[in-house]
Amino acid sequence: MRARRLLALSALGIAAAGVVATLRGGARPTVGAAVSADPTRQDTASEALARAYINALISHDPSAVRFAPDATRVEAGLKTGFSGPQMTRDLRRGPQYRVIQGVRDLVMSESGDVVSTRYLLDAGIGGTRLMTVSIDETFEISDGAIRRVVARIRPKSLL
Predict the structure, then answer these.
(1) Distance (Å, rounded) from C-alpha 110 to C-alpha 112?
(2) Is the pLDDT of residue 15 over 80?
(3) CA distance 152 to 74
């Protein structure tokens, strides 16, 4: 129930910001695959899996993302992912991801079975960027599959 209320309030906030952005002319979105802060750096296998997940947030194509069947996701302290199949469906069709326009300034590091990422995510509606959030996300990966995702999201800017 709390998660639904949070999603509804988020959607309402984005819709209100959309009206303001439309009236102001809005900014152009950042579209495309996740852009690394250091484009010359090569991903490890685990980092490539984390990048595939981040790219799927934008493309809505989770075909390159491998989840463990019992994978979970925690966002802002709330469990939002309950299984690999559910998380795959959400990446493909979830309305919470439809507002994502681009990811930039991606920085990744790996320690053991954990890949830590930090990036900026631009969100908006109809080609108009409404907000940017800073995301710190950790991926627990074993046997070539994502087992757990934990995301911390902080507002960076509106419009």
Answers:
(1) 6
(2) no
(3) 9
CA 117 to centroid of chain Cα atoms: 11
Structure tokens at 7: 């999603």
- Tokens 């990966």 belong to which residue? 141
Length of the chain counted residue by residue? 159
Q: How many angstroms separate the Cα of 74 from the Cα of each of 22, 57, 79, 153, 155?
A: 33, 15, 4, 11, 17
Q: Which helix (H) or strand (E) holds 104?
A: strand 100-111
d(CA 21, CA 4): 25
Single-letter residue type at 115: V
Is the entire prediction scored with pTM above 0.90? no
What are 123's strand-pairing partners? 100, 131
Is the pLDDT reported for residue 40 higher than 60?
yes
Separation of alpha carbons 110 and 46, rounded Å: 8
Predicted confidence at residue 35, as pLDDT, reads 63
Question: Measured between alpha carbons, how far is 29 from 130 in angstroms, rounded to an integer?
Answer: 9
